What we know:
The chain is built from 8 helices and 3 strands.
Amino acid sequence: MKPAPILMSTHHHADHHHAHHAGNHLLGALVFTLAFAVVEALAGWWSGSLALLGDAGHMVSDSTSLGLAAFAAWIAKHPPSARHSYGLGRAEVIAALANSIFMLAVVAAIVVAAIQRLQAPHPVAGGVVMGVAALGLVVNIIVAWMLSHGEKTLNTRAALLHVLGDLLGSVAALLAGVVIYFTGWTAIDPILSLVICALILFSGFGLLREALHVLMEGVPASLDLPEIGLSMAGAPGVASVHDLHIWTLSSGTVMLSAHIVIKDMARWQEILAALKELLHDRYGIEHITLQPEPPVTQVISPMLLKPAK
């Protein structure tokens, strides 16, 4: 007699669809960004503009970021297997973490270069900077539009952060070109580079913190664990709830597991259906694992949640 086959989760169909579209948007953005990064780097070197070189550096980091994000989106399309029962969706979170760290490193390099340029000013061709920065601004707007209309995963948000930072860099380079062309004040070039770096750092640290929170299996910021536990404990037929865990598997996929002490084991199927409906309708949680326990096996735990009397 053959053993029963192991049934994998069916939730991966929606995840596969989302990852496919996210990957398409990322690949399109990668082509635009990489092509212009080369043009801008050459123009920055020729014109002597740190703002253009910094913007080109951002675009090179964007290209790496988008390539890594597209690769992660492709990996995330793979369904659950015997080796990876949850699938590979968390690859997108790892890519977001790597992109955040890489972006912070790029910003640090630009800050060092800007300080050196303030100490030893270089001549800058303002007209060339204006023209190339304006073209770069258009390219970044197109790429940002492509990413903002894709799936809002942590992975694509990390890539979009790179592009928005690059868009601001193009604005800074354009302003620097205008000021230098009309006034000859070259110090504006590194000064604006530092301002943009500060803006990118503010967003970059936020994304880094969020990616680390997901990898550490923290409770999603939009959910309150004690509140959810008390709501479950207040359901008809439930005596208490303990060992409640809520975490994010990957972008848009929240998991929940708990032990449910019930008053009448014969009513478990009815109680299970009610709890699943509660968690889905009130909190948007679909991936749920609940273990029923009779009152005699109740464990006194710091996380024990009972309904209010």
